[in-house]
Amino acid sequence: MADSDDDYVQEISDEEVEAHQVTRGAGNGTKASGQGKRGVGWEVTRTWENVVESADGTINSTVEGLLEAGKRKRLLKDTTPLQRGIIRHLILIIDLSSAMAEKDLRPTRYLLTLRYSSEFVTEFFEQNPISQLGIIGMRDGLAVRVSDMSGNPNDHIANLQALRDQEPKGNPSLQNAFDMARGALFHAPAHGTREILLLFGSLLTSDPGDIHSTITALCTSHITCTVIGLAAQVAICRTLVTRTNPTLNPAKTYSVALNEAHYRDLLMSATTPPATPSSGPAAEEATIKPSLLMMGFPSRIVEPLPTLCACHSRPTRGGYNCSRCSSKVCSLPTTCPACGLTLILSTHLARSYHHLFPLQNWTEVSWHRAEASSQKSCFGCQTAFPDKPIAARSGNHDRISSTVSGGKRKMSLGGTFKKDAKSKSSLSDRNIAPGSTDGVSESGRYECGTCTRFFCIDCDVFSHEVVHNCPGCQSREGVMAAEQGLNGALGNGASEDRGVDGEMDLG
Question: pTM higher than 0.85, yes or no?
């Protein structure tokens, strides 16, 4: 038997060698391109050539700038107030078939999906505390009920953790999963939404019947579907999201994860309640009819001796008594098992309110605006802002550290930005930071348009993703300034009933 350790060398002609040569492209030398005999071209981006060391020999400023750009990218969302259904009923369908054993997403699709699903459950109830969630799995051509529809995140997370001991196997069945989900959402009240979120990693579905009839039944039941694919787009999934969301672009309801970070972003974006359709015949059918909903706001009790709760029949000392029938439940929010009254806390209702009127995005502050202001530290955490770098003071923008947005905007080591030679406007003549297109401020400051306070990037992220309120507007000085502005507007002849009809001045 011949030795197989030697390298295999194939004789090729001079024409083939020339066809596979990589030549530098025109320009700054950051890209290399080539083209073979058959017209197949390729392109290599030399990202390492864009990183320049700072004066101390490190690239910390470049890394910090890229991290700040990533934070702001997640915050720059549409903050237009829309009518949304804050009482949601969502069924999470997870693919548990053999296709989830692939390792293109580390460690595997299966383990990563279970971990992200647990994080999704926690974030879902953090953003939607008065909503309900259920989980269904697909394996061996069957639909498996992982957890029933409830508002307790601990039960869902415990059931997801139990799936780690099992292995993905068999083929998925979308039809069986949709039938089970439709049955779970059948008793959902009309004042809430009915949603299905599908995490699909396969390229096929093994169904016992016609799946198109099941999709028609979902449309009849006013159930909207969102799909996150892990492999590639599947035609039946695109048909599903197109028919169940007739007023939305399929690109918004069906996405394929590119990597682990993108997968998590797609999953966490589903925690925001969907907007209610406002036009069209399909919108008239799907519109949630305004109605009064009776809710109970019980207080927590602690008993001297354990008693059985009405929800789990377990002996506990603490709990909440129903405001109508005095039945004891373990945790809130929930529905009273005896009388069916919705039991919540006032804080739950307040936390759901921020989806209707989201906090506006803060604007970037240029060095010109920062020098004109007397604010030298963050209003939220009192961290001192960085001083203007020497390169920015002297107007020298020749030192470039990294390229943002494909080379259209560049950031210097001092935190400043330089526009390409094609740009015609001067940065010093504007109060808007040059990094506004990327959401990054050249001065490290971000300004609230209402209270005009300056904040750092960490307080910007915390205010928009956690508290959903501006510390400057909620402070005593901010409240007094808002009252003075309102009194001045009323004194100038403004209508006193502004806001009664729900309209907001976004200008």
Answer: no
